[in-house]
Design brief:
The complex is a heterotrimer. Chain A is mainly β. Chain A has 3 helices and 16 strands. Chain A has a 7-stranded parallel β-sheet, with no helix packed on it. A 7-stranded parallel β-sheet of chain A has the order 4-6-8-10-12-14-16, with helices on one face. Chain A has a two-stranded antiparallel sheet with strand order 1-2. In chain A, α2 runs antiparallel to α3. The chains are: A mainly beta, B alpha/beta, C alpha/beta. Chains in contact: A-B, A-C.
Chain lengths: ~270, ~475, ~260
């Protein structure tokens, strides 16, 4: 085991909130996963979570498109740690799909530099946590090239004493004119003992950009529950459907149809 | 960037920049030692508890680290800040005629007490470290409302009340500059609004720092008792010197059950000012705090008024605008702690960055386990006026109960070309069109201010926006 | 007249501090179609919400019986399971749940039986056709990004699939163009076809009623049923509006 600070964001909030990096005792083992794509190549890579941390790197050349899929299985014990570093060349695309279906402790760091003109990054993150489960994430879209685009979408459900800390950063660096960044977070809180922490950051050193962020955190919306109830669904079923919808939003975007169906099956079991 | 783009010139602050020869009768040495604190305490005739409080705070100051986040304050050399400057006048005056000519002239130029004559219930004016003038309208005083300087109140019938509340909301252990404040504070106001009293017209205090290389550490303590109502306005300015000045004031607001307090600030310190100000309100059951905050001046600002919603159904509303121009790094925002059931908070802020200025919106919304049924919404928008400036948005939310509804939205962008074109098609110059759009952008704040302050704020925006089209 | 299905007795309903309904009586028999007309603000939607159990409305006095059972203590989903349906004026958008999936889950919960996806899909497609809606609506997130007209059609679609014993249509025709009103009427006629289910149609526009069987018309004004009659009331309302009923109420109050 080694002590380390993970998920440290580019810009920190007030010190007393302790949402900077997270200090952890991590297992020693690490797996280096380098994704080397040719110009114009599209590839899908699935990374399974194991005891060993996954260090994923990719330097995407012109027009390359990488889909990276990571699934943390329900009920998984121990710690999973992922550290993703991607650089996108001209017109390159990086799509990250991350499902946390459970698991005792999960730490994700994903830092993407959009260097090439018109390169893009999307992150679709879905989680469903209960018990004492914990998810800690830092996701960064660093726009340095012109006309680059990023979208970070995270939605999930926390119940019992589950805890989630998400830091998301859209960083418009000088020279990234014409870029667009968007971050949305939608968190459903089911029980009184959950804890949700969110730090959605937009950093901007360029005039000609558009960045926005929206977050909704709380109980299932009363109006939706009433509407669903008026069709005969009890509160429990309605909540379960709303929770499943958070995962479906991510699953539905996964490009591999077989995996998509398998995940739908797995999550509704 | 394309040719022919509009660059708006930097501000002409001449209006605030006049200064008078410093004729202080008493000025402590620069730096911070036990001896200096004892000297200040003796000079002010502190009661014993206050002298001890100052010395304890000094120890905390020396033992506390500088904040590790936020803008750089490297330019601030504490060894060269003069912590106490008493103007050349006997203490407080209640008649305007008695205030010395140069000081009176300063405030007349700033429009005070002209504004008092017109629309205020009371005015306090602080010059460097001491309050030089204080006056409350008769009908307000008759309601039992107390508005005076903190030092003399400490010795009077409200002495015990002050001791019970002074730096209890913002303890010296809070951060390094709170400790500094505890050690060297001087001047400021004490306001007490008794139960059920309602002050319909605003009270105002105005802070003016005239001495070079000095610090201003005024303390504002306001207690609005059960069911009472108050609007307090605070204005700040200083002329520009080449040495750094420091403002580390502290504002403590106690809002009682079902009471309401609106605290408005238009801050226009000169651009050599380090504004490290701490403001905090505690709101009891059914009470309401409203912050209206305009930050235009200073070189570096750390300013995050905090609202502790301690009683059931307490509410907070925060409306702010920050305009960072050349050489400015303004880190502003707010902090809200939902500590009781059914509390609500609404935050609406705008920031504008221009000519290399840096504006940062920083916020924290904490919803504790006890805050069932609470609601919070935060909305912040930022406007970038050129590609050499910077605008950051760093909000944080920590939610520890499921029975809450928390919403946040942030947007960053620039002035839309369509809007400029539309206004120009109606005959406005590009400069006027942009100034109009920026004023409209800051309307969330100006519409919450009394008319004359809204006019002053729009003036500041126009001054900031005015300039040649390149 | 069919056997009694719904009986409302002296119903008083408030929203917040304000009382909206001041004692409404209404009885609907099995298979009957009743119409409630009235000016804006008369309390029509309040009545619909109170019947369905919308938490926004508080029943301060009076009773509601449905199929012989008192509804007061029942939660909204329990009322739905007993066969009550409300077509909402402004249905909420529920992202992430498809229309088809939603209705299937509702049916499964009501019957307690698993429904076969393929058979159900065929049924959904048939109804979509009746309502001249594209097949893709079944896959789209519930009401998300639907236009006003599409939302109304999606409500009628749910009514046809859930086959309730009493459907309340709250201004289902408002904001629809002529063609959409015709399509929606068609859907309602389909629902009326075997005359086993009852309808309570709330509207202030007679167009939707032209092609429907109507057994009774009630005028709701100022929180009370001001008049009841047959279909013959409709052309009178169309000609003369509601002014007469509103004034008569005022006079009564002033007397």
């Amino acid at each position: 085991m080694k002590e380390m600070i993970v998920n440290r964001p580019i810009a920190e909030t007030f010190g007393w909130l302790h949402m900077g990096g997270t200090r952890i005792m991590a297992p020693e083992g690490e797996r280096a996963i380098a994704c080397a794509l040719a110009e114009g190549e599209t590839r899908t890579v699935v990374v399974e979570d194991t005891e060993e941390a996954a260090l994923v790197t990719a330097d995407l050349p012109q027009g390359a498109c990488l889909h990276l899929i990571g699934i943390r299985r329900a009920g998984a014990a121990g710690m999973a740690r992922t550290d993703i570093r991607v650089r996108c060349g001209e017109g390159a695309e990086f799509h990250w799909y991350r499902l946390i279906l459970g698991g005792q402790e999960s730490y994700d760091n994903c830092s993407v530099t959009l260097e090439g003109t018109a390169s893009s990054f999307t992150a679709d993150i879905g989680y469903r946590l209960g018990g004492q489960e914990k998810y800690d994430i830092n996701c960064e879209a660093i726009h340095t090239g012109r006309s680059t685009e990023s979208r970070i979408t995270a939605s999930g459900v926390l119940s019992e004493s589950a805890r989630k800390l998400m830091r998301g950063t859209i960083d418009f660096r000088s020279g990234c004119a014409g870029s667009v960044g968007q971050e949305t977070e939608d968190v459903l809180l089911m029980d009184e003992t959950v804890r949700n922490q969110s730090v959605p950051v937009i950093l901007c050193a360029e005039e000609d950009v558009a960045g926005d962020h929206g977050a909704t955190i709380g109980r299932p919306d009363e109006k939706s529950l009433y509407y669903m109830g008026s069709r005969g669904l009890d509160t429990e079923t309605a909540c379960a459907m709303l929770a499943q919808a958070k995962l479906d939003a991510v699953i539905g975007r996964i490009p591999d149809p077989a995996l998509r169906d398998a995940l739908r099956e797995e999550t509704t079991r | 960037m394309s040719e022919g783009k509009t660059y708006v010139e930097d501000v002409n602050r001449a209006f605030y920049d006049f200064r008078f020869e410093e004729k202080d009768s008493f000025r402590v040495q620069s730096g911070l030692t036990r001896e200096i604190i004892e000297q200040i305490s003796a000079e002010k005739g502190d009661p014993a508890w206050m002298r001890d409080f100052r010395l304890r705070s000094l120890e905390i100051f020396h033992a506390t680290d500088m904040p590790l986040w936020g803008p750089s304050i490297e330019g601030l050399d504490m060894d060269n800040i003069v912590t106490y400057v008493r103007p050349n006048t006997e203490r407080m005056h209640t008649k305007w005629e008695d205030v010395p000519e140069d000081i009176k002239d300063t405030f007349e130029r700033l429009g005070i007490p002209k504004s008092e004559r017109e629309s205020l219930a009371g005015v306090g004016a602080q010059y460097d470290s001491e309050l030089v003038y204080h006056n409350v309208r008769k009908e307000v005083a008759e309601q039992g409302v107390v508005y005076t300087d903190l030092e003399s109140a400490m010795h009077g019938e409200y002495g015990e009340m002050i001791r019970e509340h002074f730096m209890k909301l913002v303890p010296p252990t809070d951060h390094k500059f709170a400790a500094l404040h505890g050690a060297v504070w001087s001047g400021g106001s004490f306001v007490y609004v008794p139960p059920g009293a309602s002050v319909e017209i605003p009270l105002q205090s105005y802070f003016r720092l005239n001495a070079a290389g000095a610090g201003q550490f005024e303390h504002t303590l306001i207690i609005v008792d059960k069911g009472a109502k108050l609007h307090f306005i605070e204005g700040c300015s200083a002329p520009k010197y080449n040495v750094a000045n420091l403002h580390a004031g502290c504002v403590e607001l106690y809002v009682g059950e079902n009471a309401s307090l609106r605290y408005s600030t238009i801050e226009n310190w000169s651009k050599n000012m380090y504004n490290l100000n701490t403001k905090r309100a505690r709101v009891e059951k059914g009470g309401r705090i409203e912050w209206v905050s305009g930050s235009f001046g200073s070189h570096v600002s750390y300013l995050y008024p905090m609202s502790v919603l301690a009683g059931e159904g307490a509410a907070c509303e925060f409306t702010g605008v920050t305009f960072a121009g050349e050489g400015q790094d303004l880190d502003t925002g707010c902090k809200i702690v939902h500590g009781a059931p059914d509390t609500t908070s609404h935050v609406n802020t705008r920031s504008i960055s221009k000519s290399g200025g840096v504006s940062t919106f920083r916020s924290a919304v904490v919803v504790t386990e006890k805050a069932e049924g609470s609601k919070s919404s935060v909305s912040c928008q930022s406007l970038m006026l050129d590609p050499i400036s910077r605008s950051d948005t760093i909000p944080a939310m920590d939610v520890r109960t499921s029975k809450a509804d928390i919403g946040h939205e942030a947007r960053i962008g620039r002035i839309s070309d369509e809007a400029v074109f539309y206004l120009m098609s109606r005959g406005l110059s590009e400069e006027d069109a942009k100034a109009l759009i920026v004023s409209g952008f800051a309307e969330n704040v100006s519409k919450e201010l009394p008319l004359e302050y809204a006019v002053e704020m729009n003036n500041l925006i126009r001054i900031e926006m005015k300039g040649a089209i390149g | 007249m069919g056997a009694e299905l719904l009986r409302v007795e002296d119903l008083e309903v408030s929203v917040g501090e304000k009382e909206i309904l001041h004692g409404v009586d209404l009885t609907i028999g099995r298979g009957e179609t009743h119409v409630i007309m009235g000016p804006n603000g008369a309390g029509k939607s309040t009545l619909a919400g109170a019947l369905m159990g919308d938490p926004e409305y508080t029943v301060t006095s009076g009773r509601i019986f449905f199929d012989g059972e008192e509804l007061q203590e029942l939660a909204v989903n329990e009322r739905a399971r007993r066969g009550l349906f409300l077509s909402f004026q402004n249905p909420v958008e529920v992202p992430g749940i498809s229309l088809e999936n939603f209705v299937r889950s509702a049916l499964e919960q009501r019957t307690g039986k698993k429904i076969r996806i393929w058979e159900f899909r065929k049924q959904v497609r048939k109804v979509l056709e009746t309502l001249q809606m594209d097949r893709s609506y079944a896959e789209r997130d519930l009401n998300v990004g639907f236009s006003g007209g599409e939302k109304k059609k999606a409500e009628i679609l749910q009514m046809l699939l859930l086959s309730p014993t009493l459907a309340i249509l709250d201004e289902t025709d408002s904001g629809l163009d002529v063609d959409a009103v015709r399509t929606v009427s068609e859907g309602i006629r389909e629902f009326q076809k075997d005359r086993s289910a009852s309808l309570l149609i709330i509207t202030h526009n007679a167009a939707i009623l032209n092609s429907l069987e109507v057994d009774a018309v009630h005028i709701l004004a100022d929180g009370r049923i001001a008049a009841s009659g047959g279909k013959e009331l409709i052309p009178v309302i169309e000609r003369e509006g509601f002014a007469e009923y509103e004034t008569s109420q005022r006079e009564e109050a002033g007397a």
